[in-house]
Amino acid sequence: MRKNVPGKQSKIVAKTDGRKQETGPKIEKNQTVPRSRSRHMGANIAEIQQGLIGQRTANVNQRIVLRQRRERKNGAPK
Predict the structure, then answer these.
(1) What residue ranges do the domains of the chain occupy?
(2) Which of 32, 47, 56, 77 could make an S-S bridge to 11, C-beta 3.0–4.6 Å?
């Protein structure tokens, strides 16, 4: 959900639905988290706050590399 803050880039608001939250920094209901690349990649907010997201982007990049390697092996131009 987006929440517009005057004079700032729109921020994404954390939706907590009353379920017990996983361990990690506590997220208040409707707390805003700055939009970032990691957010677009679908990380949840606790992961961003704990800095776990670098790992996920690394995995995505690795997948891309592997796909390109496969394509080259199958005769696609470099």
Answers:
(1) 2-73
(2) 32
